[in-house]
């Protein structure tokens, strides 16, 4: 008997099985912070990572910026809150970020006016907006930009590996795959793959709040939807006492900031960002692709400008209307804005990995720390820790255990939208055991006063 066969037989007799080698190539679908963080760490560990991103100009996802009216504008994520020392070091050494909120010009708007927040938390903004931070994170990575991976057949299992198929009949083969985006596209992308347990966690709801008394087994990843309005006004119209604030005194809004002040831009006019409440976004929801130039756009802009006036105690009509000071506006429905539920896995990790199918999930909703959920830092940590697992422990499942003894969907409470619910365990509704059953968790969502940071 050949020597190798003898050794194989001996190992089998002793109950030993050889672990498959760690993936050498990984496809990362989604070029937000989670995907880029995963790719960066994989590269440092000697694993080739390829990022596929739909952004037309650059990666970033919700951490993006645009040039508008001659200024850099953060129209989605506004800052990075940092408790993780590694992320702090990355930001400090990037040359693309600076500390934010230490000068008394960041705080809250209440019925008593503006008050600064002095909670000693470390916050950062991009020198050239959030996109500048993302650009630094993406430096040196292989990113396929403006590439659409079709949800219907873009990700295909191929005998222990994965094919990523993009338009124009291009196909790429990888040892493993990572889903680093969310929403209906991620749900559909994995629906026809054999990784059913991964697809189950990507099933998505869109709502302003979660049910207060959820039905057993109904726990699910949920995103809210909010409006982002940017507007240009001459200097001196808006208050000069603050650059950015959470809004507590107007139900329509949750955030208001001057991009001109926050990003220290010199200009004769100011460009501000206002983010709506989830309830307002739900009430006035409209198809984003058909919003521009419609009566709904005009209505939402008028309502949000009126809310800004109330929030900063300006006389009605100062900003909007025929005689208002606002010169230009741009409205966007942020359709998949913020997670209001997070997956608290039974093994308390910040990612998901299926060893059998070699596919994982990274994202800001996979946080083992309640106070960090739904933040840029959570996305970063999720991507980094998934990469570490892929490179060193790819033969072990992580964050994946489902059923009554498995993980729990836990509500997230944050400044940009409170979930208002109890935790609910995930139970497969299609299984005989799961039908009509579930386990309510003992956790309650904790307050997260850091907003979308």
UniProtKB/TrEMBL annotation:
InterPro entries documented for this protein: FAD/NAD-bd_sf (IPR036188)
Bias-annotated ranges (Basic residues): 434-453
Organism from which the protein derives: Cladocopium goreaui
Location of the region described as Disordered in the Swiss-Prot/TrEMBL record: 1-23, 418-453
Lineage of source species: Eukaryota, Sar, Alveolata, Dinophyceae, Suessiales
Stretches with biased composition (Basic and acidic residues): 1-17
Top-level taxon of origin: Eukaryota
Protein name: Uncharacterized protein
A Pfam family: NAD_binding_8
